[in-house]
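Inverse folding, one chain.
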């Protein structure tokens, strides 16, 4: 059972508030100009997108390459609400995320009975369907795109990223999260232990779609104009690279990779002719020398021993074994407790 850690929680909360206050002061005092503010926004949006894909790929082990479709749903839904219906930004942002969640359920319920390449093809097809529909709907500008007011702020972005990370961590450490980890490690074994694999696939898919829609809404209100071409296959591939490069199953790895590659991409803007070549070269070098990803399987608490709890030290227990135990309780009603294991901090 998870033991409360009030001192650790207070320290984390204080750290999060301090980071927000420092950056807000730098932006307000114009110490960070518009260029650096835009860099910060790009990093935050990409981190949020990477966290959303981490849920379905890193935790549930489901290979999705159509994540840009959920970003598009969130982006266009929130943009229509703010620009056409004059809804408040916060309401539009939440509505866009919920619309993506509903679409995730519609796509996920029938398709998540598939595995591997078949699921990847279905998600890719879904993203292309969304893009083609947006190309042919004049109400949202069609191929020319849609003009959107700049409403994304540091406060909204920071709150969204922190909320996504905290929800992901707590979900992973819960009994439901451990059951999700079980099907990632061995779906057949998880099913044999009583885990309803389809239910947990859909749950992970819907939660992932929600945060992807949130990232899409923030993206739409940060770049003034959104077009269907912004949400094509290359966008899905870019988000996939964040998760794979950081280390599949590693939340801090996905965050680190999204930050690193965003900075690399921005740094190479001065060389448009060779930008993608250099970008690809960076990826090749990293994967040659760090095939396990930038972060590997280490947890954040591994670098801060003072913040480790007894549960974080259970390194001998595999995610599959721990999650299978949780699956027994969920599937048979014998047990209801859970203990945060390795998967929660990876």
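Residues assigned per position:
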């Amino acid at each position: 059972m998870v033991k409360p850690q009030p001192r650790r929680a207070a320290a984390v909360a204080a750290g999060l508030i301090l980071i927000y206050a420092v950056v807000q002061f730098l932006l307000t005092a114009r110490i960070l100009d518009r260029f650096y503010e835009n860099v910060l926004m790009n990093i935050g949006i990409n981190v949020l997108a990477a966290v959303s894909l981490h849920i379905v790929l890193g935790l549930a082990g489901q290979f999705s390459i159509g994540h840009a479709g959920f970003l598009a749903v969130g982006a266009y839904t929130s943009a229509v609400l703010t620009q056409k219906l004059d809804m408040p930004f916060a309401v539009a942002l939440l509505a866009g995320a919920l619309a993506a969640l509903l679409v995730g359920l519609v796509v996920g319920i029938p398709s998540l009975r598939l595995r591997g390449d078949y699921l990847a093809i279905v998600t890719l097809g879904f993203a292309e369907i969304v893009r083609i529909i947006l190309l042919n709907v004049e109400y949202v500008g069609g191929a020319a795109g849609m003009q959107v007011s700049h409403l994304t702020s540091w406060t909204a972005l920071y709150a969204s990223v922190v909320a996504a990370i905290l929800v992901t961590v707590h979900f992973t450490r819960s009994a439901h999260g451990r059951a999700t980890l079980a099907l990632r490690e061995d779906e057949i074994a998880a099913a044999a232990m009583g885990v309803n694999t389809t239910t947990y696939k859909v749950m992970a898919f819907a939660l992932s779609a929600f945060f992807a829609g949130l990232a899409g809404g923030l993206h739409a209100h940060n770049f003034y104009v959104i077009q269907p071409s912004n949400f094509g296959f290359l966008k899905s591939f870019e988000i996939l690279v964040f998760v794979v490069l950081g280390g599949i199953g590693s939340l801090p790895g996905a965050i680190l990779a999204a930050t690193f590659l965003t900075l690399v991409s921005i740094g190479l803007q001065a060389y448009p002719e060779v930008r993608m070549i250099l970008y690809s070269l960076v990826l090749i070098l990293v994967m040659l020398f760090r095939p396990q990803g930038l972060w590997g399987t280490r947890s954040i608490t591994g670098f801060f021993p003072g913040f480790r709890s007894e549960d974080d030290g259970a390194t001998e227990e595999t995610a599959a074994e721990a999650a299978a135990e949780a699956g027994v309780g969920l599937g048979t009603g014998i047990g209801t407790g859970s203990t945060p294991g390795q998967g929660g901090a990876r």
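The domain at 27-307+316-328+341-345 is CATH 1.10.3470 (ABC transporter involved in vitamin B12 uptake, BtuC). Confidence is low (pLDDT under 50) at residues 301-320, 322-346.
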